[in-house]
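Annex B. Sample input.
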Amino acid sequence: MPFTIRIDKPLTPLLEELPSPVRVSLQAHLQRIAEVAEYLPPMDPRWTELAQRDGDGLRTYVAGCCVRLHLLPDRRQVRVEQIGRVRVSLCLPTALPV
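Annex B, continued. Sample output.
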């Protein structure tokens, strides 16, 4: 049985603001992490295929979002602690030099 996914309550408004395709991608990625957490211990190097080490937790990027989470094996839980949007904008000059 996969780990449960717990998203901290302060993140709920942010999740609701995300476009539907982004929420779906995020949920699918978290579900995959919850399934893998059943088999891999938190310090296993194979986590790098889904997420990168970030202090004592993990960080992953999906659909323009950076997600920080912790694996809690004793509770069989993936706890999402932070979600941030990654926005990149390019500024081009109005006129190119001649």
